[in-house]
Sequence to fold (275 residues):
Amino acid sequence: MASVVELTYYPIKGCAGTSVREAPLTPAGLAHDRSFMVVGEEGVGRTQRRDPGLALVRPTISADGGRLTLQAPGFETLGLRVDTTAARRKVDLFGTVHQGVDQGDTAAEWFTEVLGVPSRLVRVPPEHDRVTDGRTPGTSAYADSCALHVVSRATLGLLNRKLSERGLPALPMNRFRPNIVVDGWDEPHTEDRAHRIRIGDTELGYAKLAIRCAVTMVEQETGAKAGPEPLRTLAGYRRAAEGGVACGTKYAVLRTGTLSVGDDVDVVSWGDSEL
Fold:
C-alpha cells in the first residue's frame, strides 16, 4: 500500500519549505502554502528562476498565520506581525494580475538586503479567489498553478538511476519542491495515472503534469544554480507533448481535511498518462 512519507509547505513562494508530520488541507492546498510572495518594484513575483537566493530564506509561520519569522544565513532574524487589512496592490504572477497585501517597509528592507535587489513582501488577501486550470479545476494562493504537487519516491529513484548511468550524482527530492511525497508505488511516475486519490479524510483530483523549469537546477541548501541537471536527463525520457519535461503531478483539492505522514494513499480512479 502506498503512503505519505513527506509533507512540506512553503510559506513564501520560492523560499525554503517547512516539513511537518501533519497539516490541515484547505481548498488552496496545505495550510499556509505559498501564502506570501516576494515581488519587485513593479509587483512582479520573484522566483528561484531568476533569484535563486530565495532558497536560503527560511520562513516560519505561526499556526494561526498571524506571525511570520524570517531567517537567512548572515542576516538578522526578523519577526513580523502578518497584515491582512492593509490596502491591496496589484501583483504579477507569470503574467496574470492578482492582489497582494504589502507587509510593510521593514520586510521590504530585509528582503532587499538579502536578495540584493529592490523587493517587497506581499500576502495573499483573504478574499483571494484564484481559479486554477487543468483537468480538475481548483484554487491556490501564489503557487505556480495548482494546490498540490505530488512526487513519488519511485519517480525520483528512476531519475537518479539514469543520472548514475551517466556518472552523475543523485539529486535530493527537494530539487522538485513537492508538497506530498508518496512511497510504495513500484512503478515510476504512477502519479501520472492516479487521477483521483483519497488520503485520510481528504480527496484530490488530478489536474495536470508538472512541467519542470530552471528551479530544479538550484541547490536548495546553497542557493546555487547547478544546471543543466536534472533537465538534461529528464529531456531524454520525459518530454511532454506541449513542450518541456514533466516530473511529478499537480492536483486540486476535492475534499479538505487533515493530512499526516503515514496516511495510506488510496487511488480511487486511474487514468492514462498525458505524457
Remarks:
- The CA atoms of residues 44 and 183 lie 37 Å apart.
- Residues 153-165 form the longest helix (13 residues).
